[in-house]
Design a protein that fits this description.
This protein has four helices and no strands. The protein is flat and about 50 Å long.
């Protein structure tokens, strides 16, 4: 979700009606606090990479510009993934 975007009002209303502890469910779903922290660290790492952002909104771009932007971002993602794997150590369970 782009930063600064508002959450849909209907979605917020539905979320406020839930009858269970959302944080407890999240911990169960992810597999515990340690895994949740690692997941959030990966998300933070990815969401704060300026290389992953579009230089121009893609709906304003030509087919060629979309292609070039896609190749640029894929290359950046591959590079940052390797960096993240070195930082955390490779474990296939990191991506579950």
């Amino acid at each position: 979700m782009p930063s600064g975007s508002a959450v849909n009002k209907d979605l917020l209303d539905e979320r406020s009606k839930c009858t269970f502890d959302k944080d407890e469910f999240t911990l169960w779903w992810v597999g515990g606090k340690e895994k949740l922290d690692a997941k959030r660290d990966r998300e933070h790492f990815c969401m704060n990479q300026p290389e992953f952002r579009d230089s121009v909104p893609l709906h304003f771009a030509s087919h060629q510009e979309v292609y070039e932007e896609t190749i640029r971002k894929a290359t950046a993602i591959f590079s940052k993934t390797r960096e993240l794997l070195k930082k955390q150590g490779y474990d296939a369970n990191n991506f579950v």
